Amino acid sequence: MSVALYRPDAVMVWRNEEVVKRLRWYRSVMLNRTPAKFLLLKTIPVEMKLDETSDEDLWKLNDDLHEEAVELFNKYFEKRINLDDLKIVEPSFLDLKINLAYRMLRKCHFCEWRCGVNRLEGQKGVCKLDYRGYVSSFFHHYGEEAPLIGIEGKGGSGTIFFASCTFHCVFCQNWDISQPRGRIEDAGVDTDARRLAAIARRLRLDGAANINYVGGEPTPNLHIILESLKYLDVNVPILWNSNMYMSEEAMKLLIDVVDIWLPDFKYWSNECARRFSKIGSKMEYREAVTRNHLIAAENGDMIIRHLILPNHLECDTKPILRWIADNIGNKVLVNVMEQYRPEHQVILKPELYKDIARRPYREEILEAYSYAKQLGIIYEPIS
Ligand code: SF4
User: Fold this and answer.
1) Region 85-107: what's the mean pLDDT?
2) What is the pLDDT of residue 80?
3) pLDDT band at 283 (very low <50, low <70, confident <90, very high)
C-alpha cells in the first residue's frame, strides 16, 4: 500500500508554488537534479598542506573557499549530472572542514557552551561526550514535515538519532537518549565516520528523501558527520535538525554542507531558556539562536519549527513569530507545532513547572496560528 495514502499532504505540498520556491535547492537535490553541497565540496581543491597550516590560515581559507563554493552551487543548480563526472580531489574543501572540526575538538567549541575541553583526549563537557558519537537509532521517518518525507511520501526522511544533547530540556520527549540517566554508552552504539556513511548510504539507496541528523543534538558529533561525508558516495540532501546553539565557527563549517536546515526555535525569553533548557553559558540563547538562523537562512533552505508551550504565547511564541516575519519570513517555511505534552522533569517535578504541566489549550493553539497568519508566515502547507 502506498504511503501517500497516509500522508496526502506529501503530495499536495509540492503543488504549492511558494513551497517549491522556498525549498528549491533541497527539492532539486532530493530529486537528484543537483548534486548535494557536500559532493561539490569534494571537487574544490585545497592547495595547502592541511596539517602544517596554522588555524588562522585554515579559517581564512575556509572563508575564501566559501565564496567559491557558492558560485559552484549556483553553477550546478538543476544540472543533471552523472556523479562519476564529478572530479573528486584530495585534499578538498571538505577535507579542510574535517581538519578544522578535529582542531576544534581539542578545545571544544562546537556550541556556545564553549566548554574548551580536549575531547580527543577523553575530556567531556556539558554534552558528556568525548570524541566518540553514539547512534541510538536510524530509520525512514514518515512523521516529519510533508516536504521532508519525499515526493508522494515515499521513502520518508532518513533520520539518524544521536545520543546526548547540548541542552537539558525539562520537557524533552527523547530524554532517554538526550539525557540518559545511566552511561551515554548505553544510549547508543559507538559509530565512527565510516559506519555513519554506511548508514546514510543504505537509507538513501532504500529511498530516503534526505539524511536527517538529529538527537538529542547533532552538533557535538560535527567532526564525525563531516568526516562521514567523505565516505558517502550517493547524492542526498543533508538536513540539520538542531537546537541551533552552534558556535559561529561550527556554523562556518556547516553552511557549505547543509542543504536544508530544520531548526527548533524554542524560546524568545532567555529566562525561559535558562529555566526549561538549563542554558547557563556566557552566550544567551536568543543571541546565539537568532544569529544562527540568520546565517543559515542566508545559506540554505529552511523549515523552522516552533513548539507552542502552554502559558508562553506572549513571552515566547509571538515574539519568535514576529522576529521570523521581520527578518527571514520571505525565505523560510515555519511549522508552528501544537503537540506539546508534559514529559520528563515536568512530570517528575510538576511543582517546579506548573506553567507547562499541561497540554496547550485549543484557544492558545488557534491564537498562535492566527498570529502567524496575520504576520504572513507560511505554515499551513506543512502540517
Ligand atoms: S559540543 Fe558543546 S557542550 Fe559538548 S563539549 Fe563541545 S562546547 Fe561543550
Assistant:
1) 97
2) 77
3) very high
Identify which of 222, 211, 263 has the alpha carbon closest to the alpha carbon of residue 241. Answer: 263
Provide the greatest CA pair distance for the chain. 62
- Give φ, ψ of 159 to 5 degrees: -95, 130
Phi and psi angles of residue 168, each rounded to the nearest 5 degrees, phi first: -130, 70
Pocket test for ligand 1, best of 106, 107, 117 (most atoms within 8 A of CB): 117
Under a CB-based contact definition with an 8 Å cutoff, are residues 172 and 164 in contact? no
47: Cβ–Cβ under 8 A, 6 or more apart, which residues?
none
Percent of the chain with pLDDT over 90: 88
Q: Which of 16-25, 108-117, 130-139, 146-155 shows the lowest per-residue confidence on average (mean pLDDT)?
A: 146-155
Distance from C-alpha of 131 to C-alpha of 102, rounded to nearest angstrom: 9
Does the pLDDT of residue 244 top 70, yes or no?
yes
Residue where the block lists cell 546514510: 200
SS3 306: strand
List strand residue ranges (DSSP E) for the chain, in order: 134-141, 157-162, 189-190, 211-214, 238-242, 260-263, 301-307, 333-337
Report the pLDDT value the prediction gives residue 20, as an integer from 0 to 100. 95
Q: How far is the CA of 56 from the centre of ligand 1 (A)?
A: 21
**Whole-number Cα distances in Å, 82 to 29, 33, 48, 90, 235:** 13, 10, 29, 20, 10
User: Which of 105, 127, 292 is the best mutation target for the ligand 1 pocket, counting ligand atoms within 8 Å of the beta carbon and taking the most?
Assistant: 127
CATH number listed for the domain at residues 3-121+131-374? 3.20.20.70
Q: State how far the alpha carbon of 91 is from the alpha carbons of 46, 51, 221, 306, in Å.
A: 6, 11, 22, 39
Q: pTM of the entire structure? A: 0.96
